[in-house]
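Apologies for my clumsy wording, but are you able to produce some protein sequence, whichever is easiest, and the tokens describing how it folds?
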Amino acid sequence: MSDPTLTEFLLARIDEDEAEATSLLRSDAVNDSDSELSWGWERDYGPTGYLSITPARVLAECEAKRRLLADLATFSRIRDQAAEGTTPLPQALTTAGIVTGLEHAAKLLTLPYADHPDYRQEWKP
């Protein structure tokens, strides 16, 4: 078997995370998707707070990462076609386009936090 590409490696890890979170949602380990993690992913930050990762948040993270990788594949294909001379380099791959793409990537990374009270709808990709 050949070594996986970066994208293949990431998609495999995302698939594993998604499968585990989906399994937990279907099990008796958690009562609902918003329950605090009784299944072991709680990190104590002292008396002022803690990190809680629910299965629903894991699933949202999986979706955001998949969308980022799909966008990367699209832009990589366009870049490669432009390098081969089969298509002109589109505006999306200029400096301004790259900044716009990174802003879009940042919006995708907000998806797991869409239920946070400080989340703004204009961030939704």
Summary: Residues 71 and 80 are 14 Å apart (CA to CA).
